[in-house]
Amino acid sequence: MTTDDFRRNSENFCYRHPDRQSFVLCQRCLRTICPECQTPAPVGVICPECLRDQQKGQSAAQRKAERRWSRPRAASVSDGRPIVTYAIIGVTAFVYLLQLIPGFGGTLEKALMFYAPTLYPALTGMFEPWRLLTGALVHSSFWHLALNMLALLMIGRTLEPLLGRVRFLTLYVLCALGGSVAVTLLSFGTPVVGASGAIFGLFGALLIIGRHLGANIAGIALVLGINLVIGFLPGMNVSWQAHVGGLVTGLIVAFIFTRTRAVRQRGLQIGLLAAVGAVLVALLFVPVLFPALVLAS
Fold this sequence. Notes:
The protein folds into two domains: 4-69, no CATH class; 83-295, Up-down Bundle (Rhomboid-like fold), CATH 1.20.1540. Helix 4 packs antiparallel against helix 8 (142-163), helix 9 packs across helix 10 (196-213) and helix 9 runs parallel beside helix 13. The longest helix has 22 residues, at 142-163. The chain has helices at 4-8, 48-56, 60-69, 83-99, 105-112, 121-124, 131-134, 142-163, 165-186, 196-213, 218-230, 240-259, 266-283, 286-289, 291-295; strands spanning 39-40, 45-46. By secondary structure, the chain is mainly alpha-helical. The protein is 60% helix and 1% strand. It contains 15 helices and two strands. Strands 1-2 form a two-stranded antiparallel sheet.
């Protein structure tokens, strides 16, 4: 269900397919276009009409050079499939299958799971920063994996076409990082596995973007709230710290996306996303500067 404001705002829908909502603009005319109508350009994508206008203005030499050297115009986004979502699910499932190999799975899990002390050589003699992200690939059981990947599939099928593949992947990675940073600050000595932090970030992003588009987000907010509260219940063995960290990061990144939609704001968007990543990395220095505060957790 969507609100009346959402239905009346044509800018939320592809101008060629009014029944398809999108979050991507043509870089030339700035009209909203769905994945089927997108053609890759040097920066961003363009709509079919702008593509035709561009081709009409080309000289014979330019057309010949384009046919010879450019990539095929069949954009990888033309079918609208959430390829990044499928890829993340595939890689995560593959890692879980490796975990099932006797004599190897346990070693792999210990090498990839997130464990904050391994980021600080002064404590452990090791420096293994990859754990900040690889922890999202490791799961403790089949049901843990299945629930997380089901949530990723459900959200990704909606969110990835709205954002585009690069933005969606950026969002997922930053949310996974945000979850690990929150665990570092709030539960320093606790080993953590699973993609829940990143999933909560996607939920938060869907909340912000849905609100921005005028959609009815009550259902999303309810599901998010219930799952967030579950993490605080005693005996659940759930890392609420990763959930909160991923959620906050997802809210911030989605807010940046909604405020920097225009093509002319592309540089600003990239700069703000880089700043979010830099702040998350900077927070990892808190245990060094204030060890008593963090280690007490």
